[in-house]
Design brief:
The chain contains four helices and no strands. It is mainly alpha-helical and about 90 residues long. It is elongated.
Length: about 90
């Protein structure tokens, strides 16, 4: 999904395409780090399987929300923040 977001950003902001792609990667990592810390705290209490199910359920929801969005800012937020949630939950 990152290449699709990058294409949309490059079409609308040609001079800032590289910086915006970098921001996409950084935004996902900024969401992933706190999510991984939260999941690590609750993994023993809740179990790892339910947390993995949540992580893997987020991915198709993210794809549907991104597909249905015409707003570039909303699409960017959904694709980057939800991309950070799934690896944070699954520990990848």
């Amino acid at each position: 999904m990152l290449p699709l977001v990058g294409q949309k950003l490059a079409l609308t902001h040609k001079s800032e395409a590289t910086a915006l792609m970098s921001a996409c990667v950084i935004a996902a990592k900024l969401v992933m780090l706190p999510m991984a810390v939260i999941v690590a705290r609750y993994a023993d209490r809740l179990g790892r399987k339910p947390l993995c199910l949540v992580a893997f359920a987020i991915l198709p929801i993210r794809g549907v929300l991104y597909t249905l969005s015409n707003d570039l800012r909303f699409g960017w937020w959904v694709s980057r923040s939800w991309t950070g949630w799934a690896p944070g939950c699954s520990g990848r």
